[in-house]
Fold this protein.
Amino acid sequence: MGTFASQRSSLRAPYPPFARLTRALGILALLTGCKSTTIIDEHRVTETQIAAGESVVVLGRRSNSEHETEVDFISCVGENLAKGGNPIHVVPEKIFVDSMYPYFETSTAPTDVKNLERLAQVPEIKLKFQEFGVRYFVWIDGYTETVDKKGSISCAIGPGGGGCFGFATWDDAANYEASIWDFKELSLSGKINTETQGTSYMPAIFIPVPLLARVQSNACQGMAEQLRSFLN
C-alpha cells in the first residue's frame, strides 16, 4: 500500500499556471475590492411622527429623461421600510400612481408642496389619499452610474475551444436625495441625501468571474434606514 501511494504522488500533475493566476486574481479582488462606502446627510425642517394607520408613499422623480430614478431602487427603499424591527406601512409606487391616474404621471406629478396642496383640493384625489391613509410623501431623485472603467477582457473561439482573458475594474457611484413631505401639515419635513461609491472587479482566465460592489443596494439600505429613523 505504501509503495502504491508513493507512485500516485509522483504522477500528480503540477498546478496549472493559469489556475494559479486565476486564484491569485480572485484573492486580490476579494481583499481589495467589492466594497462600498456610504455617506448619509440629513436636513430636518420639522419634527415628524407617523402614527398607527398612517402610510408612506415612496415615489421616484423621473422628469429627467437622461438620468431617471430607477424603478427598482424605489421598490427597494419601500420594501426595506416595510420590514425590519420597526416597519412602516408603505403604499407601493405602481399601485399608488395607477390609482391616481393621471395626476401622478411623470408629466403631471406635483413638483413641490404648494402643487400638492392644490392637488389635494380635488375631491376624488382627497378621497384616495384618505383611503390610503397617506401621511408622508417621500420623493426620491437620483441614479446610479458607472464613473470609471479600467482594464479589458478579450474572448476568442478557436478549433481547440475558447475562453476569455484579462482583468477589468469599474467604479460605480450612487447619489440619491429624498424629500419628505408632510401631507397632514402640507409642509416640507426635511431631506436626506445618500452617496455611495464602490469598485467592482472581473478577473478572466477562460471564464470571467464578476466580483461586484453592491453600490445601489447599499445606497437603498442606507436610505431606508435613515428614512425609518427620520419618520419615527
Notes: The longest strand covers residues 134-158. The chain is about 35% helix and 35% strand. Residues 42-147+170-199+214-231 form a domain with the Rossmann fold fold (CATH 3.40.50). Confidence is low (pLDDT under 50) at residues 1-19.
